[in-house]
């Protein structure tokens, strides 16, 4: 049922991390752009381009200022609180469920608030976390043990809402809608369960995919739009009011299984998908035509949390972790495992975040709703990135190296940990006795 795109998509192969990211040749004054836009002299696309430029320049000055490293198994799920950017929920492969996040004080960053669940170990992996948008103190989790639970973040109390009762089938995706008050959960057999957000009762069940549903995404703007992604290589678009017909509005077929599919939070009408090998796709909502195709290394590995690209909350920029692949033409020996940030419209690499202390693969990368903090899932720890004034970075470079790492973006201002010996002093030769001057 896949439909050919109306226009030929832009296929972008990003440059290697060792190459310097292209600098903008046309710099925009944001105040002037806004004034010209208000007067009707500038197209909205120019204003959006200016916003992307400002955000990307700021991202180049992001550094890691705190991290959460209290887990015993690798991180499998991350979710920021929708209204409080000091609360971050973290789930692990062993079922550990903790609340952590920054305090806003860079001098005394907080690493952990409290633990909601110690986990059961093997077989208890938390696969998805979703907040209740109508009640900020409640959230929901989907776990490998076959349950969907409701949690109270303040008290730590939990309640089982769904249970498959078998180890052969479990829930692996979860989402809530504020406009409709619905909760949807997808399982490994391709069945979607729809629940009421009020009484938490099951409203209906529908077989939507042939195999595991990796993502369920509801659009809060329309209320009826539902997007599901699966490892059956399909991303399907649904009208949630007509799920009984089991006939999608459209089906976007990929070359590989799909890890995720997310709608842009800016309301631009774009859909971002991540496959299990090397493709990031941007679709336009409405006609669901393929707008941009980016080649990016993020292949699947058994003992690695699946890499999922996400959106920046303020503009249409894609955030994704890099897993260097020697099989790709763009591979360069020694390239870093960075966090890459792309423009959704052009596919251009706008910024890269790297750190000498973060040498692992950052599978999950999620911004808080304000765009101030970026949380990354890297093995057992969660580094949290934030903006650092370039003037402070330059001053810190002049101080003696104390063993700590200043982390930045793709420039060398924040993470220059290489030793540079001082220039050799000129030694004057002493004249021997008896020699004439």
Automatic annotation (TrEMBL):
Q: What is its main location?
A: nucleus
Query: Which residue ranges does the record annotate as region Disordered?
Result: 396-437
The species is Ranatra chinensis
For this chain, the family text in UniProt reads: Belongs to the WD repeat DDB2/WDR76 family.
Q: Which GO terms describe its molecular function?
A: DNA binding
Q: Where are the WD repeats?
A: 206-241
| GO biological-process terms attached to the record | DNA repair
Supply the name of the protein.
DNA damage-binding protein 2
